[in-house]
Amino acid sequence: MSKLLDRLDHITRGAPNALGFTAAASRETIPQMALLARVTTPRQSDISALADAKVDAFILSDEGKSPKQTVKPLKDRIWGAMVERLGREQMEAYKAAESDFMVFGIDGTLADTLEEGEAARILRIPPNLEEPILRGLEDLPIDIVLLQRPGASEPLTLTHLLAISNVRTAMSRYLLLEWDGELTARDLEHLRDIGVDGIVLDTTEVGADTFKSVRQRIDAMPKRKPRGEPKPAAVLPRFGGLPDTAHHHEEDEEEEEEEM
Question: Any idea which fold 29-220 has?
Answer without folding.
Answer: TIM Barrel (3.20.20)
